[in-house]
Amino acid sequence: MSEADKSRGIVLILAPIGRDATAIAGLIDRAGLCPVICKNPQDLIENLDRVIEVVVVAEEAIYGSNNLHVLEGWVARQPPWSDQPFIVLTHKNESPKLSAFRRELVIRRRNGAFLERPLQAMTLQSTVLSAERARKRQYEARAYLEAQRGAAVKLEQLVSERTADLESANSKLQEEIASRERAQAALLQAQKIEALGQLVGGVAHDFNNLLMAVIGNLDLLSKRMGQDSRFGRLLDGAMEGARRGATLTQRLLAFARKQELQTQATDLRALVEDMRDLISRSVGPLVRIEIETDQELPAVTVDPHQLEMALLNLAVNARDAMPSGGVLTIRLTSQVLVGDPQLGLPAGHYAVLAVMDTGEGMDTETLAKAVEPFFSTKAVGKGTGLGLSMVFGLAKQSGGALRLESSPGAGTTARLWLPVAAEPAEDLEKTPILAQNTARAKILFVDDDPLIAGSSVALLEDLGHEVTEVHSAREALQLLDGGFLADLLITDHAMPGMTGMELADEIRRTRPHLPILLATGYAEVEGSEVVAVPRLAKPYTQEQLAIEIARLLPKR
Ligand SMILES: Nc1ncnc2c1ncn2[C@@H]1O[C@H](COP(=O)(O)OP(=O)(O)OP(=O)(O)O)[C@@H](O)[C@H]1O
Ligand SMILES: [Mg+2]
């Protein structure tokens, strides 16, 4: 086929008898189409699979042979857009058999036209041309369908790509929402605890001051009462009540992170080992105690006595969770953190004190509330609900963290992170300095609360000192500026106008030799880095007061 032929519609011709094929081909060629003569039905069928426009078949070529079935098979298999036009050339022969064959052809070959021979050139050419046009339309339809299918496939692909993108974006969003919710819940919890801390801290501080007055006066009273056992018992009861109150306020102040901490580099392993007996007695014979420690355990910065209290609180909680016995494991490890926002800890080196029990555990609700002050599931009188609050506050105030893990029936683990100390551990102070009798000293006493000032002055006078009482830092400075000679200044910290620490600062500059004792129930004394002033935690007893005075005025 020449290049020119390719653009012309192809017409297959099957007319094997005589010169029909050549004559038809000539006519078709003249009509502007491209005739292709097939030698036999097989040849025709093979050519049908090419792109062709029209088929011209002489009926005798397919009559009474198997070729008709093959052709019919091909016709039936055409795709939906295709309806191949056939032009069947007939004879004048009207035999019944042939008529039946033609009827059959009409029915089976959907797109067939019959032309009777001898053929009129015009008739053949116009029939073939109109069949060719119809076929061209079919090809156009095919091209259109294919283009559409291509577009649909592309669209489908695009849709599935976009769906995948959306799904991944969606799951990322879900993750982010979940993590945001978690962070928000943690923040809310932290804010709640913070607000509680503020409230509790304020109340505890004021209460502590009141107890100062109660304890101070009871202290003096019991001394003055002498040996009268009847009153002695009553006084002891009152004193015991006040002391318990003081313990309570200490725990509250610990929770509010407002207690006076005496931090030092502490050897955790020694501290825990030293407490083994006490813990063992506290938890009773049904609970086995196991202590596991890392070989290399660095010292931590903590108030050792407060940490002992914390450990005891955790051990007692473990005991209460194991009424019929179990195992209490205390494990000491060290950990380097790259910063843990969940724990609220900056990057650094920490020691971890874990207290684990095999007890009843806690459900999620209890676990969420466990550190809140006054939350207790224990019977009235059995628990104050301040144990964990104290541990939590101590951890926070020491620059560490507390985390509880628990589920019902699976025991509880309380983990306490404490920052590792820069220096090696100091020896624990085991023997307190005994109160010595100091010579009569001239003491300037400053406290804005006359109730407390009164009781403290009485304690001091009872110790034999000469006390001048003022109610503000300004008054104290005025006295000193006016030439008042004092051997010692004892001052409260939290006072309106000028704080005890500011007063101490001022005096350090102008009178460096005047010893100062800061009596406070409050931590976070601003300026404590600037001047290290000896402190006395409120509420104090006369004996504690005497010890501190002896420290400051030892040689008198
Ligand atoms: N190891 C533990 N196993 C199971 N539950 C615990 C454990 N530790 C604490 N809890 C739960 O948390 C609550 C609060 O504990 P927390 O130590 O603050 O107070 P408490 O033990 O009830 O009283 P307190 O310690 O003041 O005597 C407990 O009442 C208990 O329900
Ligand atoms: Mg407890």
* CATH domain class of the domain at 263-419: Alpha Beta
β-strand amount: 15-25%
Helix content: 40-55%
Name every ligand kind in the structure.
adenosine-5'-triphosphate, magnesium ion
CATH homologous superfamily title of the domain at 263-419: Histidine kinase-like ATPase, C-terminal domain
| Secondary-structure content class | alpha/beta
Q: Measure the end-to-end span.
A: 133 Å
Shape: rod-shaped
User: Oligomerization state of this entry?
Assistant: single chain
In this structure, how is the largest beta sheet organized?
A: 5 strands, parallel
Care to describe what's here?
This protein has 556 residues and is an alpha/beta fold. Among the domains are: 3-119, Rossmann fold, CATH 3.40.50; 263-419, Histidine kinase-like ATPase, C-terminal domain (Heat Shock Protein 90, 2-Layer Sandwich); 442-552, 3-Layer(aba) Sandwich (Rossmann fold). It has 16 helices and 17 strands. It has helices at 3-7, 20-30, 41-48, 59-62, 67-76, 96-108, 121-225, 229-255, 268-283, 304-321, 364-369, 387-397, 450-462, 473-481, 500-510, 542-552; strands spanning 10-14, 34-37, 54-58, 86-90, 112-116, 264-266, 287-293, 300-302, 326-337, 348-357, 401-406, 412-419, 442-446, 466-470, 488-492, 516-520, 535-537. A 5-stranded parallel beta sheet has the order 2-1-3-4-5, with helices on both faces. Strands 7-9-10-12-11 form a 5-stranded mixed beta sheet. Helix 13 (450-462) links the parallel strand 13 and strand 14 (466-470). Helix 7 (121-225) crosses helix 13 and helix 8 (229-255) crosses helix 12 (387-397). 32% of the residues are buried. The site of magnesium ion (MG) has 5 residues, from helix 10. Residues 313, 316-317, 383, 387 line the site of magnesium ion (MG).
